[in-house]
Amino acid sequence: MKLTNLKSNKAFTLQDAAIAIIIIMLFAGTIGVTMVNIYKVQAVTKIDAVASLFVVQVMERIDKLGYTEVTAENMNNVITQMRKDFSIPQSFNLNIEIEPDEITNNLVKTVNVQLGYNFLNEDRSISVKTLKVKEFEGETNER
Among 13, 41, 65, 111, which residue's CB has the most CB atoms within a 10 Å radius? Predict the structure, then answer.
């Protein structure tokens, strides 16, 4: 008795094709998710770099101001001017706090610059503190 083979060895079966498609879809899905995550990390890095640039510009401007110009009352005008000069968007919350130091007889002020923003439904902020020192305007000891 001669047995005949019902399955041909010349082509793919439907099962072989389905398995191949599933493997390709898993591979493509993994690559897609990885690409989206890379894009998100790049976007967060860019927005953080822009925010850092704004903070550096604000700190440099405050450094150029005189000791008497750096007051809590004057900061609203300074913030408004800096927003115009540096093109800081309204979505960035810029806050500058001035704290005088009574220990040094008001010769030093602590300046706290905080820039807050929301990106990808996440609140983020950068905060930098510096000191503003009153320059001595007295006699010099040069001979």
Answer: 111
Strand locations in the chain, DSSP E?
93-100, 108-119, 122-133
pLDDT, tens digit (0-9, with 9 covering 90-100), for 82-125? 999 999 999 999 999 999 887 877 789 999 999 999 998 999 99
Q: How many residues does the chain have?
A: 143
For residue 125, what are the β-bridge partners? 116
CA separation for the pair 4, 129 (Å, rounded): 86
User: Is residue 31 included in any domain, yes or no?
Assistant: yes
- Is residue 2 in a domain? no
- Domains identified in the chain, total number: 1
Structure tokens at 36: 């989206």
Give me the torsion for CA of 98, 72, 64, 67, rounded to 10°. Answer: -80
